[in-house]
Amino acid sequence: MASRNDGRNDRGACPACGQLFTRVGRRRWCSDACRQAAWRRRRSALAAAADLPALPRPAREHTVYECPDCQARYLGWQRCDDCGVFCRRVGPGGECPACGEAVAVSDLLEQGPASIPGGPGRHK
Question: In this predicted model, which residue has the larger pLDDT, 9 or 26?
Fold first, then answer.
């Protein structure tokens, strides 16, 4: 059984140099030199893309986690000490300077500027 494109004999333009040539079978390039040049271009484009810096991942030690069972909060710790279950991620945060509890930035933003430690109000 012949392959589906083996009987094709039409004219086409070489993707590398643009020269018209008669395609025979599955041939895509006008010459081995154009095929090789296209491979080198693709290869250098991939190498250039690999040099791009990766997006920074949020640091686990600055992430607040909350236990789904007992609602205990942990800073940088993903498993509840009391329940032994994995906690859900609340978001980036840190320790409250007033009480030492783990506080997420989203908690402070929901309550407004009065809830920021050192301000007139307190967080939960």
Answer: 26
CA distances (Å), 14 to each of 3, 29, 38, 47, 87, in order? 22, 5, 10, 24, 57
Backbone phi and psi for residue 86, each to the nearest 5 degrees, phi listed first: -80, 140
Task: Specify the pLDDT at position 66.
Answer: 93
Query: Are the CB atoms for 64 and 53 separated by under 8 Å?
Result: no
Q: How many helices (H) and strands (E) does the chain have?
A: 2, 6
Q: Which residue has the tokens 């039409």?
A: 10
Question: Which residues lie across from 33 on neighbouring strands?
Answer: none
pTM above 0.70, yes or no: no
> Residues, the chain, total?
124
Q: Which residues of 8-39 are buried (b: 16+ CB within 10 A; e: fewer)?
A: eeeeeebebeeeeeebeeeeebbeeebbeebe
